[in-house]
Amino acid sequence: MNKSELVDAMAEAADISKSAAARALDALTDSVASTLKNGETVSIIGFGTFAVKERAARTGRNPQTGAAIQIAASKNPSFKAGKALKDAIQ
Questions:
Q1: How is this protein annotated for GO cellular component (predicted)?
Q2: What residues have CB less than 8 Å from 41, skipping those under 6 apart?
Q3: How far apart are CA 29 and CA 9, in angstroms?
Q4: How far apart are CA 4 and CA 21, in angstroms?
Q5: Closest CA to 53 of 72, 82, 79
């Protein structure tokens, strides 16, 4: 399912226009992104939790040359599915 298909499904399920569903989806994604950027987590009970995980700096290898390279520390978004979501897909 891509974004436009998700907007269509949201519009049908909530009995709203597609443009309203698109604005709601954009507002959700923007809110989650800005909250994660501030270092906080977003928990949607029954669906899951969005959080930021920090990855430490490490030494890696260039696969072409075998030379050691430094991989910088980074912050990556993560998602942990909630119980209701896990149960829904089984």
A1: cytosol; DnaA-HU complex; HU-DNA complex
A2: 35, 49, 50, 51, 52
A3: 16
A4: 10
A5: 79
Instruction: Average the pLDDT over 31-38 and give the result.
Output: 96
Name every residue whose Cβ is closer than 8 Å to that of residue 40 and which is 6 or more positions away in sequence.
none
Burial class (CB in 10 A: 0-12, 13-18, 19+), 57: exposed
Burial 10-35, CB ≥16 within 10 A → b, else e: bbeeeeeeeeebbeeeeeeeeebeee
| Average pLDDT in the chain | 95
Query: What was the pLDDT predicted at 18?
Result: 96
Walk across the sheet containing 42-44 and list its strands. Answer: 42-44, 48-55, 74-81
SS3 at position 19: helix
60-80 pLDDT, tens digit each: 999 999 999 999 999 999 999
